[in-house]
Design brief:
Shape: elongated
Strand order of the largest sheet: 1-4
Strand content: 5-15%
Oligomer: single chain
Distance between the termini: 63 Å
Length: 198
């Protein structure tokens, strides 16, 4: 694109003495065009977000992840029917609220998958927890196939007033798609290696 640069220099040289703003601007455009074209034609280098973090930042993120997983590891239990409590507050007598929602159930599935991805738990443990959560999910009382918005985690009974939340149901569907992809990926591997039977 050397011709463009040459034409741009000529246009600027012609336009300055004559006071032609149009010729000067056109000349500047032509001079800069090869640089702009080179820049936008560069191959996009795809990098993972984590590669932009330094060692201390990575360690900090992993610590936060581990603390978050510890909540799920503590409360995804048989006593709670593998239903994660909605929240935990240290400044009250009953630390946890014994209720959960469809969003929370889906989030617990994603937490298990993330815990495996971050190497907090083994694949066997992840599959076991997912199976237990799904089993509970199937056993919950529903309305026309839809989960109610709130359930008691100890009794698995829907809480009053009973209603369906399109937002929470939508969240659950999204989490189930992620879970399905995770299971398909690892079951494919397991069938090849015959390590797991589900």
């Amino acid at each position: 694109m050397a011709v463009n640069v040459l034409a741009g220099v000529i246009a600027i040289g012609f336009g300055l003495p004559k006071g032609s703003i149009f010729a000067v601007l056109l000349g500047i455009w032509w001079v800069w065009m090869p640089t702009i074209m080179w820049y936008i034609s560069q191959e996009i280098q795809k990098t993972k977000a984590i590669s932009q973090l330094n060692k201390e930042e990575k360690e900090y993120i992993l610590q936060i992840g581990k603390k978050t997983w510890d909540y799920f590891a503590t409360y995804l239990t048989e006593d709670n029917n593998y239903l994660i409590p909605d929240n935990y507050q240290e400044d009250r007598k009953e630390k946890i609220v014994p209720r959960t929602s469809s969003t929370n159930i889906g989030l617990s599935l994603l937490a298990v998958i993330s815990a495996y991805d971050l190497k907090y738990i083994s694949l066997e443990k992840a599959i076991d927890l997912i199976n237990k959560i799904i089993y509970t999910l199937e056993s919950l009382e529903k309305w026309n196939g839809h989960l109610y918005n709130w359930y008691n985690i100890r009794t698995k009974q829907p809480l009053n007033p009973r209603y369906i939340s399109t937002v929470d149901s939508g969240n659950l569907i999204g989490y189930l798609y992620v879970t399905k992809a995770f299971l398909e990926e690892h079951f494919y591997r397991s069938h090849r290696s015959h390590r797991f039977r589900v």
